[in-house]
């Protein structure tokens, strides 16, 4: 049974109308989704080990930072489902890349609206984090979205399809790649900020303060949130969120 509870102390208003490439929505103070100490608020899933079995420490926490080794495909995922919220997180790349993506553009992401079974990868919409492509949307395993241009896309069962970020230039799947036309990411090793706004079935994705993707008619329109390990070393910190004015939180 799903229980719904509105947390009035966390209610936040987000100014959705009129967003543009220079605006991040105004909101009241966020609260931590990651407590800065451990991953006790999350479950861990690895493709070869299953749920909450991480003997090789793919995911570790030190000094308020989550270190993701990238050596195995998997993720850490919220135990709760969310709808109508603002989410922010910071990331920076490490050095390592590993099979089957050794030598390829460093790759990770934040998958949201997750429903169904735990697997690599579940039905979800993704805020892509990848060298030269951060801010792309990926639709996985039946998820769908209508892009800003009006095109409706659906990820086939067991597969994914992309919606490119605004202003994206040519892309090459090589380590260290930078977008020659629409570069938005900071130099390697520096912290980047990604932000997500979900209101009903509409989504907005920001990278370093700029609106980089938008869509409507999202399916699913609520669910869990995960952070990937996908063959590249990456660090996450300051994972925070606030519900919108009509937000609900379910368990």
Detailed description of the structure:
The chain has 251 residues and is mostly beta strands. The chain is 0% helix and 49% strand. It contains no helices and 19 strands. Strands 1, 2, 5, 6, 8, 12, 13, 15, 16, 17 and 19 form an eleven-stranded antiparallel sheet that branches. An eight-stranded antiparallel sheet has the order 4-3-7-18-9-10-11-14, with no helix packed on it. A hairpin with a 6-residue loop joins strand 10 (123-130) and strand 11 (137-140). The model is unreliable at 1-18 and 247-251 (pLDDT under 50).
What's the N-to-C terminus distance? 9 Å
Strand content: over 45%
How would you sum up the global shape? globular
Low-confidence regions: 1-18, 247-251
Largest sheet: 11 strands, antiparallel
Radius of gyration: 17 Å
The H-and-E topology, N to C, reads as EEEEEEEEEEEEEEEEEEE
Portion in helices: under 10%
The total beta strand count reads 19
Roughly what is the average pLDDT, rounded to an integer? 89
Quickly give the structural class. mainly beta
Number of helices: 0
Layout of helices and strands:
Blueprint: E1 4-5, E2 31-32, E3 42-46, E4 50-51, E5 59-62, E6 65-68, E7 74-78, E8 81-97, E9 107-115, E10 123-130, E11 137-140, E12 144-147, E13 152-154, E14 160-163, E15 192-199, E16 202-207, E17 210-219, E18 224-229, E19 232-250
Antiparallel strand pairs: 1-19, 2-19, 3-4, 3-7, 5-6, 6-19, 7-18, 8-15, 8-19, 9-10, 9-18, 10-11, 11-14, 12-13, 12-17, 15-16, 16-17
